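Sequence in, structure out. First:
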Amino acid sequence: MTLPWTRASSRRGREIIQGVCEAQQPLRAMRTKARDRFIGALRDARRWLDELLIDPAQTIESLAKRENKSERSIRMTVSLAFVSPVLAEAALEGRLPRGFSVKRLTDLPMLWSDQWRAVGLREPIQAELG
């Protein structure tokens, strides 16, 4: 008995999220280094926010001294803790177009739907996320 079989591709296909006014054309994905920096910054942001919420003695100033960073850098990084989970997941999976970086994703509006507009992307439909 012979069964037809083809090996599954080791390369995972991913759909790059399109901009609001862009034609449906193939886009290059976010650079790997930018994605890695974003992952590290998001990890730091969530950790620092937890520390600020849990310990009333913890301040932005004390975090800046401990991490050997400026207070402004800490504040901007902590803002990443409020990025839309869908936007963060797209960045983690490398589905954002080239040109996205930590700098472009910091200091976004608090409302998640406004975040998508602020970065110039079309918010994916929930059915596409499944």
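Second:
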Amino acid sequence: MGILALQGVGYSYDGRTKVLSDINYAFEKGKVYAIMGRSGAGKTTLLSLLSGLASPTEGTILFDGQDVSKIDRYQYRSRYVGVVFQQFNLLPHLNAVENVELSMRASGKDIADKRKRATELLEKVDLDETLAKRRVLKLSGGEQQRVAIARAVSFDPEIVLADEPTGNLDITTQEEVMDIFKRLAHEENKCVIIVSHSPQVAADVDEVYELASLKASRKKKGS
């Protein structure tokens, strides 16, 4: 069993409107996954379930063998799962370093020198000291995305979830961002799960899961 597993997972709004049904996925550390599907297929709902923001109405989600519904939700979201939001969700009045530091404080983890770690993380996503001290509103979209990734991994989570992280980026920046995700998985042993509709993203990950018409089919890269 991987770090994260979905067993017969389904989700219905108001008990009647079914969005997901009988989803059986397994995710391992050290790999980049893409969850693909057309608009309305339930990608965002699935991301909410994986991040612990919502609970399945059917089935079970397991984190490291434990039922997520029986784990403290705040601890799960703030310590084990880092999320990169589609709209970045950075605090505009803070600079890049301060945004990353704030995430560390929220996690409650004992990180001795938060400023140093934040700076090192921003360097890892190719933001130098000058950019790190710049207010995020003064950064480009690609630079803000890098800050969002550094923030998501600032407390060293085992799982990184990303919602359409390349949707608003040009091709070159998209490739650079995907390289960061691959380094997180392949070099730092994170489980990286990307929700996307981009064929370019699907071609650049280790494994793809497809959502369509409430039926999930697993497609391995190259098959």
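Remark: Confidence is low (pLDDT under 50) at residues 215-220.
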